[in-house]
Amino acid sequence: MQEFLTKYLPNVMDSLPTLRQSTVETLEMVLIAGGISFVLGLLLGTLLTTARPGGILENAPLYQVLDKLINLLRSVPFIILLFCLLPLTRLVAGTAIGVRGAILPLVFGTVPFFSRQVEAALSEVNPGLVEAAQSMGCSNAEIIFRVYLRESMAGIARGTTITLISLVSLTAMAGAVGAGGLGNFAYIYGQQRNRMDIIYVTVVVLVALVSLIQLIGSAVAKRNTH
Question: What is the pTM of this model?
Fold first, then answer.
C-alpha cells in the first residue's frame, strides 16, 4: 500500500504533515465559524419571524432593518466580502491571515444565509399551534422555545447541514487568499507547483468532510421529524 501511494501520489506523500495540518485548520474554521454563525443565525432568524408583520413580536422598523441588512450581505460575493472586511478583521483578530483571520469573514458570509434558513424553517410552523399557545396564556418566550423552535427542529437541522456544507466551500475560498486550511494547501502546494495529485486528494478530503456533515445532518433531521 505504501509503495502504491508513493508511486501514484508522490507529492501528497511528501506533504502528508502539511495535509494533516491543513485538514485540522479547515475543521477549526468550520467548527468555530459554524458555532458562532449558528447562534447568531438562530437569533436573527427568530427575530425575522417574530418581528415581521403579524408576528408575535411585531416590530416593523426592526424587521425592515434586519431584512435589508441580511439581503445586502447575502448579495456581496464572499471573495469581495473578504477584502472589504480586511480592516475590521485586523482590528478584531489582530491579523487577516490564518485561521484567526478567517473566522470573522466566514461568520459574515454565513450568518445571513443561515438566518434565512432558520426563518424558512420557523415559517413552516402551523400558525394554529401559535394561536393555541397564546390562548393558553403562554408568554412570547415560551411560544418561541416551545412552539417555534421545538416544532421546527427538523427544518433547522436541514438548514444547518446546508449551511455547514456551504461553509466548507467558503473555507476553501478563504484558504486560497491566505486563510490556511485545505484551500490554501491545494493552491500553494498543488496549483502553484502544478502538482495535480495534491489537488485531487484535497478534493477527496473535502468530499469526505461534506459527506460526513450530510450524513450527520440527515440523521438529526430524521430523528426530529414528526
Answer: 0.91
